[in-house]
Design a protein that fits this description.
Trna Endonuclease, Chain: A, domain 1; 5-stranded mixed beta sheet; 5 strands; alpha/beta; 27% strand
């Protein structure tokens, strides 16, 4: 079961789309047309760190996955995966 979560709870901007799948499993959704580049990857990492900081007190082993329909540059995918973020490419 997937439900949308208020991003303000985690200190994120209100336009951020955050979904909760199971207990401790979150999906950060980025639907846009432009390519995700390294600068975006750094912003994504900061958002995920904020989420993990809030949930680590309550849930052990929490994970956050990035789901996007935009193309992602190979360096960004590698960087995100090195930082423990799985990238799910969603075709529209």
């Amino acid at each position: 079961m997937t439900e949308q979560v208020d991003p303000k709870i985690y200190g994120l901007p209100s336009r951020t789309v955050l979904m909760k799948r199971d207990s401790g499993k979150f999906t950060l959704v980025m639907n846009r047309k432009s390519r995700i580049i390294m600068k975006d990857a750094l912003t994504i990492i900061k958002k995920i760190e904020k989420i993990k900081e809030k949930i680590k007190e309550k849930i052990q082993g929490a994970s956050v996955v990035l789901q996007t329909n935009a193309p992602v540059c190979s360096k960004s995918i590698k960087f995100l995966e090195e930082n423990g973020v799985d990238v799910v490419l969603k075709n529209t």
